[in-house]
Design brief:
Layout (H helix, E strand, L loop, with lengths): L1 H22 L19 H6 L2 H11 L2 H39 L4 H5 L4 H9 L2 H19 L2 H11 L3 H13 L2 H15 L6 H19 L1 H15 L7 H18 L8 H10 L3 H26 L1 H6 L1 H17 L7 H16 L4 H17 L10 H17 L3 H9 L3 H13 L3 H8 L7 H13 L11 H8 L9 H19 L9 H6 L7
Helix pairs in contact: 1-6, 1-8, 3-21, 4-6, 4-7, 7-20, 9-12, 9-18, 9-19, 9-20, 10-11, 11-12, 11-13, 11-15, 12-13, 12-25, 13-15, 13-26, 14-23, 15-26, 18-19, 20-25, 22-23, 22-24, 23-24, 24-26
Length: 528
Amino acid sequence: MNQIRKYWLGLIMIGGLAVIAVAGGDVGSSPIFPIPLDSYGDAGLIKSGDIFAVLGNRITHTPFNLFASLIFLFAIMHTFAAVKITGIAKKMELTHAEQMRKSGKSEEEIEHNPPVLAEMLHFFGEVEAIFGIWVIVLATVMISFYDWSTFKIYIAQTVNYTEPMFVVVIMALAATRPVMQLAKQILGKFAAIGNNSPGAWWLSILTLAPILGSFITEPAAMTIAAMLLAEQFYRLKPSSKLAYATIGLLFVNISVGGTLTNFAAPPVLMVKTPWDWTSSFMALNFGWKAILGILISNLIYYYAFKKEFSKFASAFEAEAEAKMEMDSERHENSIPIWITAVHLLFMGWTVFNAHYPPLFIGGFLFFLGFAMATKAHQSHINLKPPLLVGFFLAGLVTHGGVQAWWIAPVLGSLGDLPLMVMATVLTAFNDNAAITFLSTLVPDLSITAKYAVVAGAVTGGGLTVIANAPNPAGQSILSKFFPGGVNPAKLLMGALIPTIILGLLFMGIPQDVQDPKQLENAGIEVTD
């Protein structure tokens, strides 16, 4: 059955790539789509502050706007229903298998003859495939309102798929054996302070990996943290409360942990160039608050579940000792330093050229050749999880590209504090990078408003799987530890407390913060 599901997932990914490939052909001439925000002729309504009049005018002007947003809403609702859909499919499989056993069928026959409807439901219950599925609906509606050429231009020239492609490559690199072993050794040094107990590893991973994300990018940090949590924590079968508290905490910490620099967090990347925000600006206004919030949240959760950590500590220690003895007897476990160094160089090349797909994809192809040549020191490179996450993000940005008509005026109509709260809420239902990108389209935003929207976007980045680009990577790695998949409502509850803590820390909007853009316009040199 798993092979059949892989077939369906592979088919939808190939179909999506085929659509993009076809769209990349001769696109011809077609009206600008989506239409520029200043084409609605509602500047007076915006100044009046009547947001409902603005939205009503834009729907009347372009009825497609309403349909595009409804489709996006249905896709979001679909993600929340994914666990239930998967549950229905499993019940259908069990009923079908029982009926086949009664009719005298062998287990092999049962395995190779699953009910078609159940397999289809499994496909519709795959979170990574959902936005891609709804892109088909979006395409149908877009073509009916406009034409095929408009859809091709939108896919091939308007939507930017650089981030999904980057996430695929950096996830694959971060999950390699040399990189994971190096990360394990570094985090293990800190876990050793707590005698390598489950709680010590838990604290080490959830504290250091998110901060590391400011330098190796958030998707890479998410991959490393999730894989180490799977190995050092989730395999110990924690309670459902602790399991969801941990994944919620992981998502929030990764979302804010990349704010020490201006190149690691997707929502910060969106504003880096338009607003001239440097790494020093990020560290001064965001980074230290993020570190403080991560420490406070981790300690609160650690002490809340301290009794549970102590329950499986003894079993963990016995298993760790046995594993250390086995590792000491296996010389092939050691990886030459130069191989690890080459892996880090490939990661550095990918991060440095994150905005140039031909360069980082070309580098990845060279890496695959290097990995084959050094396969004695490599683990199997599984491209399925990165590709599924990339497909998820590609679908998300495709939908997000036609939501500016309502997000931009909503953000522009609010004061600083309400703007931060609204950005946090909107982030839960849309990629936070899309929120910050759309904020750059709002004219004459004050520096405090800019701070508020970015603070809200990174704060809300752990509330749902779709809130932050690295989250699907974490879910893809850890979903096997959650029966039926990660439940969106329970994830929300697990992430709520750290979200509130970070929100309170970021809520102190600095009124004296200096805008790098204004300083540059005034002739004052701003350095990174």
